[in-house]
Design goal:
- It is built from eight helices and ten strands.
- α2 packs parallel to α3, α3 runs parallel beside α4 and α7 runs parallel beside α8.
- The strands form two sheets. Strands 1-2-3-4-5 form a five-stranded parallel β-sheet, covered by helices on one side. A five-stranded mixed barrel has the order 6-7-8-10-9.
- The chain starts with a helix and ends in a 10-residue tail after the last strand.
- Helices cover 33% and strands 23% of the residues.
- The chain folds into two domains: 211 residues, tm_1862 like domain (pyruvate-formate lyase- activating enzyme); 57 residues, Nucleic acid-binding proteins (OB fold (Dihydrolipoamide Acetyltransferase, E2P), Beta Barrel).
Length: 284
């Protein structure tokens, strides 16, 4: 991706804030901040921790915004100040997407990615200490050249220990012209598929338990569709298009945000009914 797109360029704060104002004025209830590395915002201009300032500027300009969501953040750039900013502002979704890629340091070294797995574990502890209800999403690549069975099992152990809410997984696919395509130890397709299936089967059980913990909570749900006596939407725990849904009894207006008491949990989705309350539980 960096080869295709070139160096990262941070948009000026004023431009991002202007876009946010325009969207909110049009009735948008959720804004997603996303980049190739959202937490690297400002680094091309010599600013090492500029994302918290951008968040503050957006929220000051759009006090009526319901949700501000952060996607595609890298653990090495998630600062204590960013965590504090997320925890302090109720408009910021207690949700973070961190593409970790693997849980074994040797595989991460071969990927030429940060490989301090212990630091990632401490970061996740810090995030959950500051925001006990935070939902964490990550993504992994299985079958990377040279990945041994022992390294893959370390990844499974890591996923079990970290107890992620959402996990995406991909089988490694060689791309011509990339260093990884020339690495020794290219794995057979059947090995990669088998490891993918084992990882996703493990995560399905973890996701189910994480969802079961939501039963009894009342969550704000942004409605995105309705029909056949039901409505579907998302809570703060679900990013658009990639995470699960909340199924709500009754056909309700699309675009509205309603408090929903969660009554049922599935592996990827929740279900419940609208309740009469001013604010849902996650609004602090």
């Amino acid at each position: 991706i960096p080869t295709i797109k070139g160096p990262a360029r941070s948009r000026p704060v004023a431009d991002v804030v202007s876009d946010a104002r325009t969207l909110v004025a049009q009735g948008v209830k959720e804004i997603v901040l996303i980049a190739q590395d959202t937490t690297a915002y400002g680094r091309d201009r010599g600013q090492n921790d500029a994302l918290p300032d951008l968040i503050e500027a957006i929220l000051e300009a759009t006090p009526e915004l319901a949700w501000l969501r952060l996607m595609y953040t890298y653990p090495q750039h998630i600062s204590p100040r960013l965590i504090e900013t997320m925890a302090r502002h109720p408009q910021v979704c207690h949700y973070l997407d961190m593409p970790l890629q693997h849980g074994h340091p040797d595989v991460l070294r071969r990927m030429r990615r940060p490989h301090d797995v212990d630091r990632v574990c401490r970061l996740i502890e810090d995030l959950r200490a500051a925001m006990p209800d935070i939902a964490l999403r990550t993504a992994f690549i299985v079958g990377y050249p040279g990945e041994t069975e022992a390294e893959f099992e370390t990844l499974l152990d890591f996923v079990t220990e970290m107890d992620f809410d959402h996990v995406g997984a991909f089988t490694y696919s060689p791309e011509a012209g990339t260093p990884a395509a020339e690495l020794p130890g290219q794995l057979p397709a059947e090995v990669k598929v088998e490891r993918y299936e084992r990882l996703m089967a493990l995560q399905q059980g973890i996701s189910l338990e994480r969802n079961r913990a939501q039963v009894g909570r009342t969550l704000d749900v942004l409605l995105e569709g309705s029909g056949d006596g039901l409505s579907v939407g998302r809570s703060y725990r679900d990013a658009p298009e990639i995470d699960g849904l909340v199924i709500v009894t009754g056909e309700l207006p699309v675009g509205e945000m309603v408090p929903v008491r969660i009554e049922e949990a599935m592996a990827y989705d929740l279900a419940g009914h609208v309740v009469e309350t001013k604010t849902a539980e996650h609004i602090q």
